[in-house]
Amino acid sequence: MPVLVMKFGGTSVATLDRIRRAAKRVGVEVAKGYDVIVIVSAMAGKTNELVGWVNETSPLYDAREYDAVVSSGENVTAGLMALTLQEMDVPARSWQGWQVPLKTTSQHASARITEIPPDNINAKFAEGMRVAVVAGFQGISDEGRITTLGRGGSDTTAVAFAAAFDAERCDIYTDVDGVYTTDPRICEKARKLDKIAFEEMLELASLGAKVLQTRSVELALRYNVKLRVVSSFEEQSDEAGTLVCDEEEIMELNVVSGVAYSRDEAKMTLISVADRPGIAAAIFGPLSEAGVNVDMIVQNISEEGRTDMTFSCPTDQVARAEKAMIDAKSSGDINFHDIVADTNVAKVSVVGIGMRSHAGVAAKMFQVLSDEGINIKVITTSEIKISVLIDRKYMELAVQALHDAFELEKATV
Amino acid sequence: MPVLVMKFGGTSVATLDRIRRAAKRVGVEVAKGYDVIVIVSAMAGKTNELVGWVNETSPLYDAREYDAVVSSGENVTAGLMALTLQEMDVPARSWQGWQVPLKTTSQHASARITEIPPDNINAKFAEGMRVAVVAGFQGISDEGRITTLGRGGSDTTAVAFAAAFDAERCDIYTDVDGVYTTDPRICEKARKLDKIAFEEMLELASLGAKVLQTRSVELALRYNVKLRVVSSFEEQSDEAGTLVCDEEEIMELNVVSGVAYSRDEAKMTLISVADRPGIAAAIFGPLSEAGVNVDMIVQNISEEGRTDMTFSCPTDQVARAEKAMIDAKSSGDINFHDIVADTNVAKVSVVGIGMRSHAGVAAKMFQVLSDEGINIKVITTSEIKISVLIDRKYMELAVQALHDAFELEKATV
Question: ipTM score here?
Answer without folding.
Answer: 0.75
